[in-house]
Design a protein that fits this description.
Chain A contains 11 helices and 18 strands. By secondary structure, chain A is of the alpha/beta class. Chain B has 2 helices and 6 strands; from the N terminus they run E-E-E-H-E-E-E-H. In chain B, the strands form 2 sheets. A 4-stranded antiparallel beta sheet of chain B has the order 3-4-5-6, with no helix packed on it. Chain B starts with a strand and ends with a helix. Classes of the chains: A alpha/beta, B alpha+beta.
Chain lengths: 414, 98
């Protein structure tokens, strides 16, 4: 591999950039792997990366039906944050943010993490009360959060319209929150995993599991059978379909979540802004596009396109808060298929089938969790013991009634 | 945008309806006598298919009636709208998609 550095960049520039080694090479599947990961998105790649680099399991393959990072990892609005209400969530997501903070250096790949602050708005007295409760909870969880007055918000985000239909009465910021370049996360992890010996097999669709005596022993794919010591599944919106191949039924509903960008403009917005009430979040990318998103299209869907109703809702919500953006043209719009769990918290860890592990239920917030999802799943697969940070996020919590109801608690849209 | 044909009001935009999730889920008759697992299955487990989905919609900003809809979750094509309480219409998905 080529190390990415200023020196190497200058050196290769002299040769017309013709002799860079590929970041990862296409692999053909071997007959057996110690661990097979289904899904070459952020979570799958991160699991493989940490298995190979941190937990000493080198014989790993990642199977991806399409191309690396072509699903939700490349379709989200890039937000990273850890301002969660419940201690379980806070510990997990802050672990993720901390890993993100050092991952660019570790991977030798610039993830363009920009901790520009993550600002949540409140639009009513009731919301202000809930928000203060959240800020207190988040602070007690050891995570940075600070309440802002309307004047402070205006100073920070001069373009905002505080007297919108739902006037802005206040907000809170997580200074360490922000955005990261989503494609870079997929590419950097794929490169890191490849360099650690992981086989990344694209255009390889899962067609079934080999299960005998309640234990998974391998997978059937469009490129033939592969035997495996353990299998990890990280396929987001297609979790129910993949689980069905193993005769498992999941508490997951798949929906389309849209995002869209405007034409690029000069820097006008240097923080990520979210309004839970009107369900809108917006930031400006390094290329200058205004990136916005909102709630999912509220019916079951596996279509990666989304409907006009939600586009209108998202844009209307944006223009209420930022009327000046009305002159911008929307350049692109797309959707990812998100896997929504009953409590909007992820489902991580073991399944009723031995050696089959699952990572799903991220709903609309999986991107920020990529490093921690990968790290904890890699630990769990390598040690066959659930990582302490994800103990509470097991599939069985629904039987116990031990839901982690972040959708109701955190006051932030997922 | 979906267009759903309400049996009472005719074809209407998706914006007039609210989605009620998977249909044909039967509440256990005696919840207190079943296991936590069965109760959790009833409450939380969903088919969530890529293909024909049998689901409930309410014509919320119209006649307010609940209806069943058989719809493809990939193409979003609506195969059938049928009354609550009726059994699932059976489709050969390949035929329906032709």
């Amino acid at each position: 591999m080529s190390h990415y550095s200023f020196f190497n960049l200058a050196k290769k520039a002299l040769g017309g950039h013709k002799n860079w080694a590929p970041a990862w090479r296409r692999a053909t599947p071997q007959k057996h792997y110690d661990v097979v990961i289904i899904g070459g998105g952020g979570h799958g790649l991160a699991t493989a990366y940490y298995l190979a680099t941190k937990y000493g399991v080198g014989n790993v393959a990642v199977l991806e039906k399409g191309w690396v990072g072509g699903g939700n990892t490349g379709r989200n609005t890039q937000v990273v944050r850890s301002n969660y209400f419940y201690p379980e969530s806070a510990a997990f997501y802050d672990h993720s943010l901390k890993l993100y903070e050092s991952l660019s250096r570790e991977l030798n790949f610039n993830l363009m993490l920009s901790q520009r602050g993550h600002l949540s708005l409140a639009h009513s007295e009731h919301e202000m009360e809930i928000m203060r409760r959240n800020v207190n909870a988040i602070s007690l969880n050891g995570i940075d959060a600070r309440e802002l007055s309307p004047a402070e918000i205006k100073k920070r985000v001069p373009l905002i319209n505080l007297n919108a239909r739902y006037p802005v009465l206040g907000g809170f910021v997580q200074p360490r929150g922000g955005i990261a370049r989503h494609d870079a996360v997929a590419w950097g992890l794929a490169r890191g995993a490849y360099n650690a010996g992981v086989d990344i097999i694209e255009n390889c669709a899962l067609t079934g599991f080999d299960i005998s005596g309640g234990r998974v022993t391998g997978v059937q794919t469009s490129k033939g059978a592969i035997s495996a010591g353990s299998v990890g599944v990280a396929v987001a919106g297609h979790s129910s379909e993949v689980a069905r191949m193993a005769d498992l039924k999941l508490p997951i509903t798949s929906m389309s979540l849209q995002a869209m960008v405007t034409e690029p403009i000069k820097p006008v917005l240097d923080t990520a802004v979210i309004s839970p009430t009107i369900h809108m979040y917006v930031s400006q990318s390094d290329r200058g596009e205004i990136v916005l998103g909102g709630g999912a299209d509220v019916y079951n869907s596996y279509a990666q396109r989304g409907g006009m109703r939600t586009i209108e809702d998202n844009v209307a919500a944006l223009l209420e808060l930022f009327p000046r953006f009305s002159r911008l043209k929307l350049m692109r719009q797309w959707a990812g298929v998100v896997d929504i769990s009953p409590d909007t918290s992820p489902i991580l860890g073991k399944t009723p089938i031995d050696n089959l592990y699952i990572n799903c239920g991220w709903g609309t917030g999986g991107f920020k969790a990529i490093p921690a999802g990968g790290d904890t799943m890699a630990y769990t697969i390598a040690h066959k013991t659930v990582h302490p940070l994800i103990n509470a996020f097991d599939l069985q919590r629904f039987e116990r009634g031990a839901l982690i109801d972040e959708s109701a608690a955190s006051g932030v849209a997922h | 945008m979906l267009q759903i044909t309400c049996p009472w009001c005719g074809p209407r935009n998706e914006t007039e309806f609210s989605f009620g999730g998977e249909s044909h889920i039967i509440r256990p008759v005696r919840p207190e006598s079943i296991s936590d697992r069965d109760w959790s299955d009833y409450q939380f487990l969903r088919e969530n298919p890529k293909g024909t989905h049998y689901e409930r919609w309410q014509h919320r900003f119209g006649c307010r009636q609940w209806i069943n809809v058989a719809r493809d979750t990939l193409s979003h094509e609506i195969y059938s709208v049928y009354p609550m309480g009726d059994p699932k219409p059976v489709f050969d998905r390949k035929e329906a998609l032709l």
